[in-house]
Design goal:
Blueprint (H helix, E strand, L loop, with lengths): L15 H13 L13 H11 L4 H4 L9 H11 L3 E5 L2 E8 L1 H11 L9 E3 L4 H14 L18 E4 L1 H5 L2 H8 L5 E4 L8 H16 L11 H18 L8 E7 L3 H4 L2 H19 L6 E5 L5 E3 L8 E5 H13 L2 E4 L2 E5 L10 H12 L1 H4 L9 E4 L2 E7 L1
Antiparallel strand pairs: 1-2, 3-11, 4-5, 6-13, 7-8, 7-9, 10-11, 12-13
Helix pairs in contact: 9-13, 9-14, 12-13, 12-14
Length: 391
């Protein structure tokens, strides 16, 4: 619901009392009583001004008095502290407020760590012990020359991120279309990852590999690239059919459900290896055995960069080993119990989107299992695909 949260209403009409009453009634459907500021009509405002001030400044202050003072804000904070307040997917201007028991139910459905042994394995140790083991491998591989270890590390605390379109629609409508209601994204943030800086730099290289995919591949980096593909399809159709002939377009769209969660780790590493071995041909270079990544900011390039102190070198073997390290050490903290992920890449992981792109691009048998390799003109974007052809 959208309403301007002000304590006064101004109108030249005589119906301001009716307007104030209507707005208050609407707010009462969604807010606790103490959160609703009193609505004042023109007559009340004028009477208050006449009684409290005779100076000309009183008219200038009209409408600026707010009921959201310190006490109201404090009561609102008290009201919200026992509720689940969270963001909404693709909607930064609103917050979702949930009953804690309802949130817990959806959380357990999204992250069934105690019943899904295929994805999650309980860890008997503390995260301090887990981080110690990770640090030993980090030091053994001498990755500190690429990026510093994060000493203030912590395990990721996952959360379900609900979709706005499912919130606005009724549960019956969503269930009829999708087979379930209140769908959400299983987000696993990596802000506290022990190797966050290292993975961030490796992500620059994987991003470069995705951008270098040959034109025949599915990946579309932006809207302009999609428009160019559509224009190419239109030109092909016009050259295929004689001038004045009639033809029609057919389009298929689809979505790969749970793509991130279901990609096998071996398939991901196969796709990364495929990209490393293929990048030389994609870029027109004979041998590619290392990359240079910007030490500050973003950016990566093939080969060695001799700019003093500006770039960090990462070899192809290091790239593979770091991706393997990332997949082997993916942990979540659920109610202070730690679980290791055994399948898939976490949604929210710094490398997960690149893993999905490379797997779907044909770098593993996972791609062929989709059964779409013979379809006309596939257009992919991570987990959503569209195919068009003329007939």
């Amino acid at each position: 619901m959208h309403s301007t949260m002000q304590s006064t209403i101004f109108s030249t009409s005589s119906g301001t009392k009716v307007i104030a009453t209507a707005i208050t009634a609407a707010w009462r459907q969604y807010l606790p009583d103490f959160y609703i500021p009193p609505m004042q009509d023109d007559e009340t405002i004028q009477a208050t001004d006449d009684a409290t001030s005779t100076s000309s400044s009183s008219s200038q202050s009209k409408g600026l008095h707010s009921s959201f003072d310190y006490h109201i804000v404090q009561r609102l904070a008290t009201f919200l502290k026992d509720l689940a307040v969270m963001g909404i997917d693709k909607c930064t201007s609103r917050c979702l407020i949930l009953c804690p028991h309802l949130f817990e139910r959806y959380f357990d459905e999204t992250f069934p760590v105690t019943t899904d042994a295929r994805h999650f394995t309980p860890m008997p140790t503390s995260f301090t012990a887990i981080a110690r083991i990770m640090k030993q491998e980090y030091d053994k591989q001498k990755w500190s020359s690429i990026a510093a270890w994060n000493p203030n590390c912590s395990a990721s605390v996952p959360y379900p991120l609900f979709k706005l379109k499912d919130i606005l629609a009724t549960c019956a409508d969503v269930y009829e279309k999708k087979g379930k209601c209140c769908r959400n994204r299983p987000v696993v943030p990596t802000t506290g990852h022990p190797a966050r800086r290292l993975l961030k730099r490796v992500g620059q290289i994987l991003s470069l590999l995705c951008r270098l995919l040959p034109p025949g591949q599915f990946h579309i980096a932006n809207t302009a690239a999609f428009r160019r593909l559509v224009d190419t399809g239109m030109a092909d159709a016009q050259s295929h059919f004689p001038s004045g002939s009639t033809y029609r377009w057919a389009m298929w769209t689809g979505d790969i459900s749970n793509m991130f969660d279901e990609i096998n780790h071996a398939e991901i590493l196969t796709a990364v290896t495929w990209a490393i071995n293929s990048v030389g041909g994609w870029s027109g270079k004979r041998i590619v055995d290392r990359f240079s990544v910007a030490r500050f900011g973003k950016g990566a390039r093939i080969g060695v960069d001799y700019t003093d102190g500006e770039m960090v070198m990462i070899t192809t073997s290091q790239l593979f080993d770091i991706c393997k390290f990332d997949l082997m050490h993916s942990y979540v903290n659920v109610r202070n119990q730690y679980y290791k992920r055994g399948l898939g890449a976490p949604m929210g992981g710094m490398l997960s989107a690149f893993y999905a792109i490379l797997c779907a691009a044909g770098g593993s048998s996972w791609h062929s299992n989709l059964g779409l390799q013979s379809s006309p003109s596939p257009v992919w974007y991570v987990a959503t695909w569209t195919m068009c052809s003329w007939q």
